[in-house]
Design goal:
159 residues, mainly alpha, 2 domains, 7 helices
């Protein structure tokens, strides 16, 4: 892969002035804010959520640095992550739909087996079986355009 990259990309001199003018405050706020948010969400159940000083500190850091990151990226002329693009109707709507899809997939893949294991179905096999039906339904959505074509008669004709 590295050989292909070195072959395909033309050599240009480094632009160290662009490196110096980077959005370092935005990168720092993003790293601290999102890192502490991820640590809080990952370790929360194991460490009794807000009963743990570690989780409380992570929540405070996330509450400070994530909004600070958003403000910095919206104000800066050349941001690290251009959040102003979400103001575009198409990209903003697509991002909301993708976020909803991510929530739905996370719910089906992680939360349903977790609740099944903690609840009535303590056997791992039964918790896994719940995902089989969900997988069939989710994968069948890939073929919906084909079924729609057969049902409506608007199939793609081969040349």
């Amino acid at each position: 892969m590295f050989a292909a990259i070195f072959y395909a990309i033309d050599k240009k001199p480094m632009k160290l002035d662009e490196f110096r003018r980077g959005d370092w405050w935005g990168i720092l706020c993003m790293a601290i804010g999102l890192g502490s948010l991820i640590a809080m969400l990952e370790e929360g159940q194991r460490k009794d959520w807000f009963g743990s000083p570690f989780i409380v500190n992570c929540a405070i850091l996330a509450a400070i640095f994530v909004p600070l990151f958003i403000v910095i990226e919206l104000v800066r002329e050349k941001p690290f992550v251009n959040l102003r693009l979400l103001g575009s109707r198409n990209l903003g709507f697509t991002s909301v739909v993708a976020f909803g899809l991510g929530l739905a997939l996370y719910g089906t893949v992680f939360l349903i087996p977790l609740f099944a294991r903690l609840g009535r179905w303590r056997i791992a096999v039964l918790a896994s079986v719940t995902l089989v039906g969900l997988t069939v339904v989710t994968r069948s959505a890939n073929f919906m355009p084909i079924f729609k074509g057969y049902l409506t008669g608007n199939r793609i004709k081969s040349a």
